[in-house]
């Protein structure tokens, strides 16, 4: 399975993402934001961090990068994409996922492990978990309050596109949403960091099932 990890000025989880994907068996290349082509890969990962210093709105400047044109073509062709934290913000800013990430309720940067529920196991990203399973993953963000209008929320619920919800809603996300899937279920955006939970030495292995499930499904495809 071939994966590309996009690197923006201010990305700080790009190498963690590459390590997590490689540990699961993926062949990973790094792609700079100025590159207009990503190449022939199965998955594009958009990592966490503070792209362009979070100026304007988190992810808004990154979404205008040349590489995001290539990301859009990849998704339009049916390719898979995973956006974590700032990557989720980039995916909403590019319109590849619905909704937006707003400033946390409480206006504080929150950096800790949080409880999540796997809301659906029906995706390449979540097939390694059981639907309804509780897991804990780290979060580290100040703009993680997921918001969407009522019609969008109803559609996400009705079509099983909510991937993860928070056990305790610490950031003000509507419907406790921590991650959502695209219509074709091949794009996932999530605020918690599975790539920071792939090694017991750094506290948790709860993210391993996401990367292993993904690599297994794409290797079979
Ligand atoms: N860890 C991250 O990706 C941070 C995301 C974003 N810059 C925020 O703080 O909301």
TrEMBL record:
Enzyme Commission number(s) of this protein: 6.3.5.3, 3.5.1.2
Q: Which Pfam families match?
A: GATase_5 (PF13507)
Q: What does the record give as its pathway?
A: Purine metabolism; IMP biosynthesis via de novo pathway; 5-amino-1-(5-phospho-D-ribosyl)imidazole from N(2)-formyl-N(1)-(5-phospho-D-ribosyl)glycinamide: step 1/2
Q: Which InterPro entries match?
A: Class_I_gatase-like (IPR029062), PRibForGlyAmidine_synth_PurQ (IPR010075)
Spell out the coiled coil positions from the record.
none
PROSITE patterns assigned to the protein according to its UniProt record, in alphabetical order? GATASE_TYPE_1 (PS51273)
What is its biological role? Answer: Part of the phosphoribosylformylglycinamidine synthase complex involved in the purines biosynthetic pathway. Catalyzes the ATP-dependent conversion of formylglycinamide ribonucleotide (FGAR) and glutamine to yield formylglycinamidine ribonucleotide (FGAM) and glutamate. The FGAM synthase complex is composed of three subunits. PurQ produces an ammonia molecule by converting glutamine to glutamate. PurL transfers the ammonia molecule to FGAR to form FGAM in an ATP-dependent manner.
Keywords, A to Z, come to: ATP-binding, Cytoplasm, Glutamine amidotransferase, Hydrolase, Ligase, Nucleotide-binding, Purine biosynthesis
Q: Which residues form the active site?
A: 85, 193, 195
Record's GO cellular component, any one? cytoplasm
Q: Which GO terms describe its biological process?
A: 'de novo' IMP biosynthetic process
The scientific name of the source species is Loktanella fryxellensis
Q: How does it assemble?
A: Part of the FGAM synthase complex composed of 1 PurL, 1 PurQ and 2 PurS subunits.
Subcellular location(s) of the protein: Cytoplasm
Protein name (Swiss-Prot/TrEMBL): Phosphoribosylformylglycinamidine synthase subunit PurQ
Q: Which domain of life is it from?
A: Bacteria
Q: Which GO terms describe its molecular function?
A: ATP binding; glutaminase activity; phosphoribosylformylglycinamidine synthase activity
């Amino acid at each position: 399975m071939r994966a590309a990890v996009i690197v923006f000025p201010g990305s700080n989880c790009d190498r963690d993402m590459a390590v997590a994907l490689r540990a699961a068996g993926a062949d990973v290349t790094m792609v700079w934001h100025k590159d207009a082509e990503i190449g022939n890969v199965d998955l594009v990962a958009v990592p966490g961090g503070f792209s362009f210093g979070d100026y304007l709105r988190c992810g808004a400047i990154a979404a205008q990068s040349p590489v995001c044109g290539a990301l859009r073509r990849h998704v339009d062709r049916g390719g898979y994409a995973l956006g974590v934290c700032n990557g989720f913000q980039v995916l909403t800013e590019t319109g590849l996922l619905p909704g937006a990430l707003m400033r946390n309720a409480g206006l504080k940067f929150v950096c800790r492990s949080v409880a999540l529920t796997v809301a659906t196991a029906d995706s390449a990203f979540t097939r390694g978990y059981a639907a309804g399973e509780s897991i804990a993953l780290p979060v580290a963000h100040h703009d993680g309050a997921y918001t969407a209008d009522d019609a969008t929320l109803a559609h996400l619920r009705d079509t099983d596109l909510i991937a993860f919800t928070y056990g305790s809603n610490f950031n003000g996300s509507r419907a406790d949403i921590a991650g959502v899937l695209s219509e074709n279920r091949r794009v996932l955006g999530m605020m918690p960091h599975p790539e920071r939970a792939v090694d017991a030495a750094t506290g948790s292995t709860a993210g391993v099932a996401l990367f292993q499930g993904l690599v297994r499904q794409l290797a079979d495809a």
